[in-house]
Design goal:
Number of helices: 4
Helix content: over 70%
Distance between the termini: 30 Å
Strand content: under 5%
Radius of gyration: 14 Å
Length: 105
């Protein structure tokens, strides 16, 4: 199983690849979809790293935003999809670097 740091590095790599992707070509849409799916998977894996309930809500919110980004792409709105994906990845990177907090009862 990959570590939290490996998922963070994967998110950074996906962000770099999305930045380099030319979305003016419809042929790149499947690759963007693949990247979005990869980030959603990273969210699932980061959630299993033991975050507080507030951090879990943030990760789940990001998964919803990424699902919306996929829907935008399916509706031929690639520019908005890319922007939403980038912003969400940056947000995830910021949140993922926050150490998990033990909840007290």
């Amino acid at each position: 199983m990959a570590t939290k740091e490996e998922y963070i590095q994967e998110l950074r790599q996906v962000l770099e690849e999305i930045n380099a992707l030319d979305i003016s070509y419809r042929a790149n849409y499947p690759l963007l979809t693949e990247h979005i799916d990869s980030v959603i998977n990273s969210c699932h894996m980061l959630l299993s790293s033991g975050y507080s309930s507030e951090q879990e809500q943030i990760m789940n919110y990001c998964k919803i935003k990424l699902s919306h980004a996929k829907q935008l792409l399916l509706n031929d709105n690639a520019e908005d999809s890319v922007q939403l994906t980038k912003v969400t990845i940056l947000f995830l990177l910021r949140e993922a670097t926050i150490e998990p907090v033990e909840e007290q009862d």
